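Schema walk-through. Below, the input block comes first and the output block second. Nothing else is stored per chain. Lengths vary across the set, and this one has 748 residues.
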Amino acid sequence: MSRGWWNALWIVLVCSSLACSKPEAPAKNMAEADDAAGGLKLAPPDPGDADDDSGKARITDKSGKSRASAGIDDTNPFKDSAKNSPIEEGAPRKSLAGRWILVLTRPAQEQQFIDFHTGIVAVSAAKDDEGRLTAKWTAPTEVLPPAKLVSSEIDNKSIRLTFDIDGGSKLDFQGTLKDGVVYGNALFGNCLPARLLPTKAEALDDYNVSPEPTDARALSQAFSQKDPQAALKALAKFVADRPQSPLGMMAWETSVMVSAIQDAAPEDVEQLIADYDQAMAMWGSRLQQTLQGNIGIILAQTKYNPDFSLKFVATADKSITDESLKDLKEQLKTAREGILTVQALKYIESDDADRAEKAFGFLTKLRGKNPFDPAVLYGLARYLEKDKQTDEAIAMFAELVSLPMLEAFLQREWAQKANGPKRDLPSATLAKLWEAKHGKTEGLDEFKDEIYRKRVVAFADKPSTEAPAGNKLVLCELFTGSSCPPCVGADIATGALEVTYPKTQVIVLRYHQHIPGPDPLTNSDSEDRFSNYYHGQGTPTVVLNGAPVNNVGGYLPNSPDIYRGLKNLVNQQLDSKATVQVDVKARVVEGTLQLLANVTGLDQLGDEAKDVRLRIVIAEDEVHFLARNGVRGHEMVVRRMVGGPAGVEPKDGKLSIKESIPLADLKSSLATYLKKYEEDEGIDFPAKPLDLKRLHVVAFVQNDESKEILQTNAIAVTASASTASNAITPASAKASAKATAKKTQTDN
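--- output ---
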């Protein structure tokens, strides 16, 4: 058994953390793992902070080394600190009076957890005028954004604390005193175990406030078991030996997942869930309700017995009565649809024609809601194949094969079930159907390309009307990688933006990176813009008019949601009036790109004028290249930043750029860069797409202090008739050892 079961559970727990990362990419605090609760939003630019990497939660000490592995032992996570542990030892407290450290135990990155020591809660020993105990929030640490304690409800044994967090979110802790520790749960994006640990310390400055939990190594050993039965035995021992561990929730849910993947008997799964619920009682009712929702989602993801799963989800939905968990109830609706999809496929593959037809109708409706659900598409394709609707079946199987990673999702899903039905992959079925119809396989690749172009952004809204003259354009900068699986969602979502908005409203630029592996569409200017200007650490990263956007990582099924989030942000900015205007002219004369850009309105900026820079990008309109992550068409690919990534600063109150660039020199410089990369990394790119015939010149003005982009303009230029065919150039399966060592957070 592989680590696939662990990675599947990880998606349940931290599905917001979809990104590819540079090795050792640090992060400042735990809030990054919780941004998904609020959807896509602009994050304030922080040009001097290389640690701000949306979508990941990684903790480092001041030296940049991972805190999670620094000097940890199984009894004292503070052994590496300058002083002894801040946790008070001795006889357990009998009341809530005193100082307590609020500790939130949360996932950080793959197979890793962190005890986030957020600060100290001081509970008064005396009651106030209304006869209530009161609490103060003192000595907050850096693991949380600035927080304010806005309410507290305390009696002799129970406590509830509500915090307002900078950025508009809330943290809600509920707990009960037991054996000198307050066990409870915290709702901060999602609901997980949390504790108040007794302390006499007045501050935590001298301590590592984000250590690995003391039980983490034991849980890691259980996770490392490759045999399912050995894993279940190790997890059962973990929860039996450590009934008060905050990591018990992860151990129990992994046990349920492994059991479901192994198609354990329903009565055994039911008993396991009941034991889990009982074990979590000490952590509070809200966490017990959360686990019901989590289990429903796990059963759906593992495609467990649909009859059992549907009954459980119905019961779980009724059990979730806490209003703060309404988002979890919504997720259960999606889980139910997933279970019904499994059931529908069983009917389609059965001999019951009436049930199969009804299942086809259900999946057809569901496809309208979830256009890229591979299980839905496969069920539809199988029905059409069995019903001898050959042309329709070919088109449906072609979607599964040509759209990014959908066949890989099916293959991975089927591989989890050792005793599941044996099915041909969609690519094999497609080839068989195509050859049976045409007598040969020629033309199939072109058909797949056609289906890709037709379906990949079919969810995009119709083109919008033109924006009023003088309004600010929105420049959307996407930092992506052709070998980055979680970049697919952002790649396709930004492509849909280009369908909805003309280039007089929104311009998308794509800067490719060698993250997590080699990318032949990368160049030094794109790397510099990402690493040195925006201090990027992970792909995908989206920046709208200079402001980074949170939570854009995901796969193709996520792309409609990412698109809608980006569209909302774009619409908020389209009504803004531009302070400055950019005029840009460009043409190709005898193989040389001649361009001129000029900025007007600098006198309206006042002192800000000294901080602005003019930048010009040469972008290739479209590159036909089958990337390792399955994306076949790459639009507006940045090829060079004219004058360098630093741009041009005003001179004598004027700001302009005039350049003549031989396209042969541009192509040669890109080829030289790729050749050097091949030599340095020990790889060979089988394809280096460098057509450079259809281009856009994009000019924009940016304030280098605030990072705000003040105005953008673009013009299309055509060098000559394109020499590239519309056929998709395949990517290589070959990658360097250095490159493949870089891990993605969501890759199996």
